[in-house]
């Protein structure tokens, strides 16, 4: 059992009043902590009462919202189309910090998705257009063959932007900051949006 002793206690006034600015600050700390994927977050979706969770990469704030990119027709894309309410969690082990976010998603404007798509390496662009995310495939060879076919067919030309691929903005309704403390009496500060104003409460660990 780990004893969390890294951080100084989180007093009631120690976090910024704006949880978006606070999250940005903790993300900066995580990026400086030598982690492999400091922007990785677990994204939970739910349909018909059945949750499912997977990791995606946070790709920056769009206004006050968190963006991530994926295939709109994979499992998470279909689930978000059915139920846009979702949750995301960051866990930075070296920092002994967790952030939990709940809210709803909307698709990003296509222009933003395009812009991000063409900033990615060409290999990833071909990967995104090749993958029918979450579909069953007969073999690894079939997938590799489709990737090679696309790469050859498109040699020397721009990879066409796949209409089924793009970003979401997660519009947060609540954000909880958790920091480990000795003896399991961890600090938890929960921000909730009420009529466009963020309020904050402390939760028991
Ligand atoms: C570190 C890490 C980062 C990932 N980043 C993304 C991402 O940004 N977008 C994405 O679609 N999948 C990402 N994945 C893959 C997803 O976890 C998942 O396998 C995939 O999106 C299919 O999920 P779905 O079937 O629920 O749609 C990542 C996986 C890991 C382990």
Q: Give every kind of bound small molecule, once each.
A: flavin mononucleotide
Q: What's the number of helices?
A: 5
Q: Quick check: average pLDDT? A: 96
Radius of gyration: 19 Å
| Subunit arrangement of the protein | single chain
Structure description:
This protein is an alpha+beta fold. It has a domain of 137 residues: Electron Transport, Fmn-binding Protein, Chain A (Pnp Oxidase, Chain A). The chain is 26% helix and 36% strand. It is built from five helices and nine strands. Strands 1, 2, 3, 4, 5, 6, 7, 8 and 9 form a nine-stranded antiparallel beta sheet that branches. Helix 4 crosses helix 5. The longest helix is centred in the C-terminal third of the chain and has 14 residues. It is elongated. Bound molecules: flavin mononucleotide. The site of flavin mononucleotide has 16 residues, from strand 2, strand 4 and helix 2.
């Amino acid at each position: 059992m780990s004893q969390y002793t890294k951080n100084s206690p989180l007093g009631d006034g120690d976090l910024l009043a704006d949880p978006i600015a606070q999250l940005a600050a903790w993300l900066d700390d995580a990026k400086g902590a030598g982690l492999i994927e400091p922007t990785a977050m677990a994204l939970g979706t739910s349909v018909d009462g059945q949750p499912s969770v997977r990791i995606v990469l946070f790709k920056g704030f769009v206004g006050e919202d968190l963006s991530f990119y994926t295939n709109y027709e994979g499992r998470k894309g279909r689930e978000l189309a059915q139920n846009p309410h979702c949750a995301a969690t960051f866990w930075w082990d070296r920092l002994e910090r967790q952030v939990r976010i709940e809210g709803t998603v909307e698709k990003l404007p296509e222009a933003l998705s395009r812009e991000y798509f063409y900033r990615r390496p060409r290999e990833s662009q071909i990967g995104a257009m090749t993958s029918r995310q979450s579909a069953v495939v007969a073999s690894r060879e079939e997938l590799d063959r489709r990737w090679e076919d696309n790469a050859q067919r498109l040699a020397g030309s721009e990879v066409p932007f796949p209409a089924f691929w793009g970003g979401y903005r997660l519009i947060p309704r609540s954000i909880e900051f958790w920091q480990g403390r000795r003896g399991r009496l961890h600090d938890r500060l929960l921000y909730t949006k009420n009529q466009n104003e963020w309020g904050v409460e402390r939760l028991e660990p």
